[in-house]
From TrEMBL:
GO terms for biological process: chaperone-mediated protein complex assembly; protein folding. One of its GO terms (cellular component) is cytoplasm. The keyword Lipid metabolism does not apply. This is Uncharacterized protein. The keyword Ion transport does not apply. InterPro entries: PFD_beta-like, Prefoldin. It comes from the Eukaryota. GO terms for molecular function: protein-folding chaperone binding; unfolded protein binding. Belongs to the prefoldin subunit beta family. CDD domains: Prefoldin_6.
Length: 123
């Protein structure tokens, strides 16, 4: 019985560590998306200050290429929508992983308690 509990503890512990790793990756992804969102909002703010006479350039590889102002603004708006959607997706993933992490932690505590209760009986 103790060997089965010990084995179950190992399996749940490994699952818990994997969830923690996934949680860490999701947090990193969320931070990168937040940085991209901030950067693109700044670009949109700069675009709002442009006049019709201003020229917009886009970096393509090592070259600056002239771009239509309306197209550039539309690209930034599209990018912002995409980033916001990705942030929502990652937040859902973070919530799900947080719940799974709590379940595994509770399961680990339960197994640990059962193992500790068996030890005095074996002695």
């Amino acid at each position: 019985m103790a060997a089965a509990l010990q084995e179950r503890f190992q399996v749940v512990s490994t699952d818990f560590q994997k969830i923690q790793n996934d949680l860490s990756l999701a947090v990193d992804a969320r931070q990168k998306l937040e940085a991209q969102l901030s950067e693109n909002e700044l670009v949109k703010k700069e675009f709002a200050a442009l006049t019709a006479e201003n020229t917009v350039y886009k970096l393509v590889g090592p070259v600056l290429v002239q771009q239509d102002q309306a197209e550039a603004k539309q690209n930034v708006d599209t990018r912002l929508d995409f980033i916001r959607g990705e942030i929502k997706r990652v937040e859902g993933q973070l919530k799900d992983l947080g719940e799974k992490s709590e379940q595994k932690k509770t399961e680990l505590v339960g197994i640990q308690t059962a193992l500790q209760q068996q030890q005095p009986a074996a002695a």
